[in-house]
Design goal:
With 136 residues, the protein is of the alpha+beta class. 31% of the residues lie in helices and 19% in strands. The mean pLDDT is 93.
Length: 136
C-alpha cells in the first residue's frame, strides 16, 4: 500500500535491521524499542489488523511469531518475551504487526507503559538483529 512504511520495508524500499525475510512475513528491529532486540513481525502484504489477515494465513503468521519469540530468548539470553498486537487503537502504523519484546526479571516493564531504549548506533542494532537471526 502506498505510503505504508511497513510495506516499504517489506519491499526493501526502506532500510531496516531485518531478522527474517520470508515470502509471506518480514521481521525487523523496532526503531524505538521498549528493550534492545524488540522486533516487529509483519505480513509482507498489506493488511491493517489481525482481523483482516485471511484465515488461511493465520497459522503460518503465528508460527513465525512463535519461532522469533524463541529466537529472541535464545539469541539474547532473555528470560522470556512479551508478545503483543494493537488493532487500530495505539497502532502507530496501520499495518498488522506483532511486537516480540525481550524480557528479563526486574526489567522495569509494568503493565502497558512501554519505556523506549534507543540503540547507541546502527552497528549495535545490527548486532542485535544478527543474534536473533542466528536463532530464527
Amino acid at each position: 500500500m502506498e505510503g505504508c512504511v511497513f510495506c516499504a520495508i517489506a519491499a526493501k524500499e526502506t532500510p531496516a535491521f531485518r531478522v527474517l525475510d520470508e515470502p509471506g512475513v518480514v521481521a525487523f528491529l523496532d526503531t524505538r524499542p521498549v528493550f534492545k532486540g524488540h522486533l516487529l513481525v509483519v505480513p509482507r502484504r498489506h493488511v491493517e489488523t489481525l482481523g483482516d489477515l485471511p484465515p488461511d494465513e493465520v497459522a503460518g503468521y503465528f508460527a513465525t511469531v512463535r519461532q522469533l519469540s524463541r529466537a529472541v530468548e535464545d539469541g539474547l539470553a532473555a528470560g522470556g518475551t512479551f508478545v503483543a498486537i494493537n488493532n487500530r487503537v495505539s497502532q502507530s502504523v496501520p499495518h498488522l504487526h506483532t511486537h516480540v519484546i525481550p524480557r528479563t526479571k526486574g526489567d522495569g516493564l509494568r503493565g502497558f507503559f512501554w519505556p523506549r531504549h534507543r540503540y547507541d548506533s546502527d552497528a549495535e542494532a545490527q548486532t542485535y538483529a544478527d543474534k536473533i537471526a542466528a536463532g530464527a
